[in-house]
């Protein structure tokens, strides 16, 4: 990883912590997959865009309806629990 990529990731992490009021270090709790039968959704606001079969890093289990996740492009957002499957 180059220095430029490292700084870009650090900036994205700081923006995530500010936007979601997340304190502490960002650590992946587990990885989950979006249900292949689920409908694809465009992201918006604080929601993460969903693609069928996509593997997401779980950052925080926020409540019974939503999970805070990160996708492969290092974008953060909420995902409905109903469309997530354990690996």
From TrEMBL:
Q: Does the keyword Chaperone apply?
A: no
Question: Which residue ranges does the record assign to the Helically-extended SH3 domain?
Answer: 16-85
Q: Which InterPro entries match?
A: FYB1/2-like, hSH3, SH3-like_dom_sf
Per UniProt, what is one Pfam family of this protein? hSH3
Q: Which GO terms describe its cellular component?
A: plasma membrane
**One BP term from GO:** protein localization to plasma membrane
Please give the superkingdom of this protein's source: Eukaryota
Could you confirm whether the keyword Magnesium appears in this record? Answer: no
Keywords on this record? Phosphoprotein
Entry protein name: PRAM protein
What organism is recorded for this protein? Oxyruncus cristatus (sharpbill)
From which lineage does this chain's organism come?
Eukaryota, Metazoa, Chordata, Craniata, Vertebrata
Its gene is: Pram1
């Amino acid at each position: 990883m180059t220095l430029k990529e490292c700084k870009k990731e650090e900036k994205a992490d700081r923006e995530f912590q500010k936007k979601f009021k997340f304190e502490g270090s960002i650590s992946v709790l587990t990885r989950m997959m979006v249900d292949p039968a689920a409908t694809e959704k465009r992201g918006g606001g604080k929601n993460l865009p969903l693609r069928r079969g996509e593997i997401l890093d779980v950052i925080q289990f926020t409540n019974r309806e939503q999970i805070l996740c990160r996708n492969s492009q290092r974008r953060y957002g909420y995902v409905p629990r109903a469309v997530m499957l354990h690996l």
